[in-house]
Specification:
The chain is an alpha+beta fold. It is built from eight helices and 15 strands. β9 and β10 form a beta hairpin. The structure holds 6-O-phosphono-alpha-D-fructofuranose. Its cofactor is Mg(2+).
């Protein structure tokens, strides 16, 4: 029985990967794991504790905040503040960055960009939701500013997500591969269940909201037609799977292979998903697992952020499928 490795044990074990590490990042990751367990407890019984439905407020995205959105945001920020390793939190739920170190002498050196509850519209219908986080080191020698937050995805020191699904998993990377941990409620610990995750180079899953089809770029329409064409080698076209929660759709693709696409649409000319706390962290994870992530033309992790809540189109998943989709985007741009 005792071959179980908990998240805490794993983090400490892997600290040796970073010779100059003083344990700060390890403590930060553990702080996020604690908040995840607290949020999981409420997600799992939302219907019983009046945590369903709208909070009666809106967020910077202009989205109607769900009660669990607000709760998750509060819990992750509280855990990061209590842990003392994070100086700034950039949350999807807050218009401005939040300074956690009230005293400039506090030398917290990490910055966390977070989507506290991704896909929260799924809560009321009992479908998977998630949390996505991205971690940067502060660059300035003095008090951190917004410039310390607006770093390219290649500067992330760690990225991860929690999926509150049929089981609750925490998946993260520090740039040395991707590892998945499943929450064992009987001991209240995340336990290593998916070591060294690798995404298949190809796959037969496409995840896209085809409700927006008429407004898709031509290259995306052509790629969808490619996926729907009869595949003579296997006599079956692709399977379409879309839950409305990026974390759940990409987690499926990380395990089974395939491609998730949220392109530009009529409602979202620059795509809907946010660069800093959705696309960058998911791109780091998928690339670390051997996949690719682009905006249809450029690598997501190379995009230079200009604004905190900026959006980007995203094509992410199995490398061969992302390359295929990019080629179709380029061909269509050439024609039109
Ligand atoms: P649509 C959830 O609101 C989210 O940010 C992602 O998790 C998800 O992939 C996407 O938006 C769903 O958007 O327009 O298909 O409902």
């Amino acid at each position: 029985m005792n071959n179980v490795k908990t998240l805490g044990q794993f983090i400490i074990e892997k600290q040796a990967d970073f010779p100059f590490a003083k344990g700060e990042l390890s403590r930060l990751l553990r702080d996020l794991g604690i908040a995840a367990k607290i949020v999981n407890r409420e997600v799992n019984k939302a219907g019983l504790v009046n945590m369903l439905g709208s909070a009666g407020s809106g967020n910077i995205q202009g989205e109607n905040q769900q009660k669990l959105d607000v709760y998750a945001n509060e819990q992750f920020i509280a855990a990061l503040k209590h842990g003392g390793e994070c100086c700034i939190v950039a949350s999807e739920e807050n218009e401005e960055i939040q300074y956690l170190d009230t005293d400039v002498s506090t030398d917290a050196s990490y910055i966390v960009a977070i989507d506290p509850l991704d896909g929260s519209s799924n809560i009321d219908v009992n479908i998977a939701v998630g949390t996505i986080f991205s971690i940067f080191r502060k660059r300035s020698s003095s008090r951190a500013t917004l410039d310390d937050v607006l770093q390219k995805g290649t500067c992330q020191v760690a990225a991860g997500y929690i999926i509150y699904g049929s089981s609750t998993m925490l998946v993260y990377t520090t740039g040395k591969g991707v590892n998945g941990f499943t929450l064992d409620p009987s001991i209240g610990e995340f336990c290593l269940s998916h070591p060294q995750m690798e995404i298949p180079a190809n796959g037969k899953l496409i995840s896209i909201n085809e409700g927006n089809y008429v407004h898709f770029p031509e290259g995306v329409k052509n790629f969808i037609k490619y996926c729907q064409a009869e595949d003579l080698s296997t006599n079956r076209p692709f399977t379409s799977r879309y839950t409305g929660a990026m974390v759940a759709d990409i987690h499926r693709i990380l395990i089974k292979g395939g491609i998730f696409i949220y392109p530009a649409t009529a409602a979202y000319r620059n795509g809907k998903l946010r660069l800093m706390y959705e696309c960058n962290p998911m791109a780091m994870i998928v690339e670390q697992a051997g996949g690719k992530a682009t905006d249809g033309h450029h690598r997501i992790l190379d995009l230079e952020p200009q604004m905190l809540h900026q959006r980007t189109p995203v094509f992410i998943g199995s490398s061969e499928l992302v390359i295929k989709a990019e080629l179709m985007m380029e061909a269509a741009d050439f024609v039109y």
